[in-house]
Amino acid sequence: MMYPTPKGASNRSRWARAAALSAVATLLLAGCAAGGGGTSPSEGSGSVDGVDDGTTLTMWTRAATQIQSEAFVESYNASHENQIELTVIPTDDYQTRIGAAAGSGSLPDLFASDVVFLPNYTSNDLLLDITERIDALPFVDDIAPSHIEAGTWDGKKYAVPHTMDLSVLFYNKDIYEQAGLDPEAPPTTLEEFDEHARAISAAGIPGVSGTFFGGNCAGCMAFTWWPSIWASGGEVLNAEGTAAELDSPEAASVFEIYRGLVDDDIVLPGTRDETGATWVAPFPDGSVGLMPMPSTMLGSMPESTGVAPIPGVGGGQSTFVGGDAIGIASSSENADQAWNFLAWSLGDEAQIDVLAQNNDVVARTDLAVNEYSEQDERVITINEVAAEGRTPFALNFGAAFNDPNGPFLVLLRNQIFGDASMLAEDNAAITAVLAE
Q: What is the rounded distance in angstroms from the CA atom of residue 382 to the CA atom of residue 386?
């Protein structure tokens, strides 16, 4: 999932605006004939660990995940005969570069991708089928299912988790105490979220509002509101990713609660016009009491910050699992060596000493509690909620949901600030784009 870069945020929390998928799709289709040259899963060494024989591998990643990618590569290169040459590409240029490389037959051995755009690559045969390799891993059942599902096409698996970012609820325990709320009892329903935000607003704490959101940022709201829809028992898309389901009673109930917060001035001023550039800034500044945000922001939060799963109407919990997945290019001549890196990246050493040590979300549910997360129960909460998360699947995701001029933002603006009776019509407009 992609959202605009917040001012003052670290590289680890930067998500770029969505690229123009129509142009990229053209390049990808042109590249289909160039793909398919890689070693099939059954033609390699057969080892679950792949081959470590001193081969030099090429790998691309987008700038948004540069820190984690560099940490992985540095650790792998220091401990293996194989060596990886990493290229970091500006996030805004990444999809276009992948499409151009596919068209010219010059993809790297390994390339990562924003997880929501995986279907564009898997459906165009740019990635190698690694189903047998993944299924042979001893911890296969513990790998975060959302990224595996997003990288599956026609029943075949093409990618594994590389980096993970989740949407979670942050709340300020100091503000909770000032508002007469229990700082150890975050909301477990969206109704309680509403109640807590209103209590904070009513407390009259100087410079503090109940909550905040990017009211003019489609990606921000998808990332933080869709979990409430899922937790309420609703869906945002059909299983094929070809039709929107945002006109459901569950979605309408979520929109209604946020609309009420806006109507009653419970939100921080500026919510209506926030495009995403500064949407994460008010919480660490102590200007709001609680709001759903990216988990990668934890390191920049005050010590008084509590973390909880995002609740739904009437209960439940969920999260939007974003971040990047990684696979082997179908044109790679070094599939076994490339798999050696992927298998290692999912192993205990890499997950704990590379990711967990830096307070990043691990990609395996069995490692949610580890020597580093045990030092901060908030990290355990983030790791554990990953197992209940979703990554939406749609070929035309960017144009339908991330485009600042697209139909999803129109729907949101109408539901929160405008004509709520337009829900069915606005939902149909999203479906029309998804079907293109």
A: 7
Two tokens at 186? Answer: 């975050």
Q: CA nearest 115: which of 321, 367, 335, 373?
A: 321
Per-residue pLDDT of the chain (436 residues; tens, 9 = 90+): 555 433 333 333 333 333 333 334 444 444 443 444 334 443 344 468 999 999 999 999 998 889 899 999 999 999 999 999 999 999 878 988 999 999 999 999 999 999 988 988 999 999 999 999 999 999 999 998 889 999 999 999 999 999 998 999 999 999 999 999 999 999 999 999 999 999 999 999 999 999 999 999 998 999 999 999 999 999 999 989 999 999 999 999 999 999 999 999 999 999 999 998 899 999 999 999 999 999 988 878 888 999 999 999 999 999 999 889 999 999 999 999 999 999 999 999 999 999 999 888 899 989 988 999 889 999 989 988 887 788 898 888 888 998 889 999 999 999 999 999 999 999 999 999 999 8
Return d(Cα 420, Cα 424) in angstroms, integer. Answer: 9
First to last CA, the chain: 20
CB 87 within 8 A of CB 114: no
Q: How far is CA 311 from CA 12, 195, 380, in A?
A: 25, 13, 17
DSSP letters, 102-149, are HHHT---SEEEEEGGGHHHHHTTT-B---HHHHHTSTTGGGB-HHHHH
Separation CA 401–CA 267 (nearest Å): 23
Q: Write down the pTM of the prediction.
A: 0.80
Name, in order, each residue with C-beta under 8 angstroms of 36's C-beta and a sequence gap of 6 or more.
125, 330, 331
* Dist. CA 128–CA 227, nearest whole Å: 31
Q: Which residues pair with 308 in a beta bridge?
A: 169
- Cβ count near 23 (within 10 Å): 12
